[in-house]
Design a protein that fits this description.
This protein is of the alpha+beta class and 402 residues long. It is 37% helix and 16% strand. It is built from 16 helices and 13 strands. Strands 3-2-1-4 form a 4-stranded antiparallel sheet, sandwiched between helices. A 4-stranded mixed sheet has the order 6-5-10-7. The protein has a 3-stranded antiparallel sheet with strand order 11-12-13.
């Protein structure tokens, strides 16, 4: 590896996060390259406020050329990884080339090691993170891929704790490079030009947030999970692959209803964030009893819920947890399954095409089965792992309108 100082001019011009990522990607990647070739790069970049007390500043930007779209993608995750990377001494890291065998990258206060990950390859994300913590210590923050990334699913995600950098197949890019994880530890001080001014600004901003009806009340209470019922009432909730935009089961999958049922376990927050909008939910009774997930957020309630005609909240919690462990983007996964369900409804797909799975809208067991098949590219999952656009192209021009 090699390191490069970032000039003040560069910082002021590109700021950090996706600004750094867009510039670096433009410099490093030639036109027309295959996103899953070793010529692509994957960039993780922090923002100028990451690691400071300022609330909502803990995001890490992941930038690459997308295997799903073939274009620029910037995808984000919160938690504690970004501040740890900053404390390790880096504003951004760029991963180039590819390893012949599985590795994980360990970064600690300016030291970078490439470690064997043969024992981690094939593991789900939660288990892989635990094993790395056992090796490096609990003061480590980890971003890793699951089986979906290893199998180059076009919408594979990168998972840190339970936070997902989900969009565009960033996990598949890491998988193509045989990089299972990037682990960071840091004890360096982050310099602030005017600490008092930043703290005064942060305190003032936090007061405004607490007084705001969304940031101060709704998000701390429900996160984004109140949205399905609201959006359905407004006629803008994608339902049955957008064939309609009102969903009779919207209340059943919404936060208020399930909080009242006692399914909200507790709230969590990203580093230094006062909003605590992340919610940990549990499944109630029935076949999914005992499942717990940090999430679902609105996007997952919509994509694996109403978009698939599914009003079983317990199954959405289970599917959300499964996507995190397998390393799959919940949004594209749900949209692709919903598209397949409409194809099934209209007779373009049959049970012979779906490995015997009944893909009628609302079949929540089918969603769980398909997520596993997609992650491991097994049977019909091998096709659905390509995303809805490529599935439509392979099924025929009359299907693309769906």
């Amino acid at each position: 590896h090699f390191e490069k100082k970032i000039s003040k001019t560069f910082k002021r011009k590109y700021l950090g996060g996706n600004g750094f990522g867009a510039y670096l990607l433009y410099q490093e990647v030639e036109p027309h390259i295959d996103p899953l070739s070793e010529k692509n790069v994957l960039i993780m970049a922090t923002g100028p406020l990451t690691g400071t007390p300022f609330t909502s500043s803990a995001m890490t930007a992941v930038v690459t050329k997308s295997p799903l779209t073939g274009m620029f993608v910037d995808s984000y995750f919160g938690g504690h990884y970004g501040p740890e990377l900053k404390h390790a001494g880096y504003d951004a890291i760029v991963i180039k080339g590819a390893s012949e065998t599985p590795v994980y990258i360990a970064i600690s206060d300016g030291r970078v090691d490439f470690r064997d990950a043969g024992h981690l390859w094939g593991k789900e994300t939660f288990e892989a993170q635990k094993l790395i913590l056992d090796e490096l210590g609990t003061d480590t923050q980890i971003a890793c891929i699951g089986p979906a990334g290893e199998n180059l699913v076009k919408y594979a995600s990168i998972i840190s704790e339970t936070r997902a950098s989900g969009r565009g197949g960033v996990g598949a890019v890491l998988g193509s490079k045989k990089v299972k994880a990037i682990a960071v530890q840091g004890t360096k001080t982050i310099s602030i030009r005017n600490t008092k001014a930043l703290l005064d600004f942060t305190i003032n901003n936090n007061t405004k947030l607490r007084d705001h009806p969304q940031a101060g009340k709704n998000f701390p209470t429900y996160g984004s999970t109140a949205a399905p019922a609201t959006y359905s009432a407004m006629g803008i909730l994608g339902t049955k692959n957008w064939q309609t935009e009102t969903f009779p089961g919207a209340e059943k999958i919404s936060g208020e209803h399930n909080k009242a049922k006692g399914l909200l376990v507790r709230s969590r927050s990203c580093n230094t964030c006062i909003i605590r909008s992340s919610k940990i939910w549990k499944a109630g009774t029935g076949p999914y009893h005992g499942q717990v997930a940090e999430g679902p957020e609105y996007e997952t309630q919509f994509s694996l819920g109403s978009l698939c005609g599914n009003d079983n909240f317990d199954s959405i919690v289970t599917a959300d947890r499964l996507c995190d462990e397998l390393g799959i983007d919940t949004i594209t996964a749900g949209a692709t399954i919903a598209f397949a369900m409409e194809c099934f409804e209209k007779g373009y797909l049959t049970v012979e095409d779906t490995d015997g799975i009944d893909l009628n809208f609302g079949n929540h067991q089918a969603i769980i089965e398909l997520l596993k098949k997609i992650a491991y590219c097994e049977g019909c999952g091998n096709l659905l792992a390509e995303g809805s656009k490529r599935v439509a192209e392979k099924l025929g021009p009359e299907i693309e309108k769906l």
